[in-house]
Amino acid sequence: MKKRDFIKSSLLAGIGMAGFQNSFGTEKNDLPKSTDLKHWVWENPNLEDDDKSLKEKYERFYQAGIRGMFFENDSEKHFRIAKKAGLEAHRWMWTMNRGEQELLENHPEWYAVSRNGDSCATKPPYVNYYRWLCPSKPEVLAYLENQVQRILEKNYVDGIHLDYIRYCDVILPVNLWPNYNIVQQKELPEYDFCYCETCRSNYKEMHGVDPLEIEYPDQSLSWRQYRYDRITKVVNQLAKVARKNSKLITAAVFPTPEVARRIVRQDWTKWDLDGICPMIYHGFYREQAKWIGTAVAEGIHFLCGRFPIYAGIYLPDFKSEDELEIGIKAALQNGASGISIFGNVDEKTLSVLQKASNSVSK
Question: Could you tell me which of 242, 230, 259, 314 has the C-alpha nearest to residue 251?
Fold first, then answer.
């Protein structure tokens, strides 16, 4: 599965945030200067790219204000040429969603189990590549720590970028229900994770009840918090590995703290990171480009300055260059420290990025 092919299935969900920007919009005097902005690009490196074309591309990226790359796969050539052009080169890693055959065959017990008892190892939800590990298992954490260590030991890697650092989507947007012949007016057991023996026994020890015995598990605040905390623990342990290697750590997350907690049990405002890239893909949520700024404002408010937000945008969502400029400006004017771009970053995109960045108040 190529990087973020899952986007085509739009396995995301969200809500409108009308009126939120008025409550938590960033003050004009607090805006970052255009010279302080740090833009990023998500890229799956093409091993057939030649050195000359890569040099030209990454130098042009730098001229447009891009300062870092998230590479989905390891390619020393891409990393080193990007670094020579002045860009940071980070390795982008699928974290909890791991479908390696070696894991499926040798460690099926590591995989998350749904409320109706199905394991992601044998019956993945929604699509075949949704193979979610259980964050409660010490063996899973040790495995991920080892993976991060092996990546960061390489001297051409500047940092680790965590993706799929969450639970499976428990609710999909309503327009996708027909695609899977499901109705999700409530949290359905086959998409609700994790109820493995480890999670059940841990939670019971803490709260005196088996999660399977909770009458309305979707309404249990302590059961939600248990799962938020499990993902937070994984992130913060991986952050320790990054610190030990004197490398940076960032993550791609759902667009706002509220959406992330509700849909995928992801409480990213409590993570120990150097930066975060909320995937504010407005088209997935049937929102206008200006909503990107609303989402940024919410994140800025709840982060309280702990680390910067780089607003993630999905280029196919934009119908025109003007709309792209509106979206970028909305993010920057509401306090984003830069933009993270997914899609075909061509010359038009770079020009819009430069123009929007230069328009930010000095």
Answer: 242
With b for 16 or more beta-carbon neighbours within 10 A and e for fewer, the 20-46 pattern comes to bbeebbbeeeebbebeebbbbbbbebe
Q: Which domain holds residue 346?
A: 5-358
pLDDT in tens, 1-57: 444 544 444 333 333 333 333 333 444 445 455 568 999 999 999 999 999 999 999
Q: How many domains does the chain have?
A: 1
Name the average pLDDT for the chain: 90
Contact 155, 76 (CB under 8 A): no
Q: Residue 56 corresponds to which amino acid?
A: E
Closest CA to 132 of 287, 331, 266: 266
Residue 48 maps to which CATH number? 3.20.20.80
Three-class SS of residue 249? Answer: strand
| Helix intervals (H) in the chain | 20-24, 51-63, 76-84, 101-106, 138-152, 177-180, 197-207, 221-244, 257-264, 291-303, 321-333, 347-358
Strand ranges across the sheet with 275-278: 275-278, 248-253, 159-163, 88-94, 66-71, 39-43, 338-342, 310-314
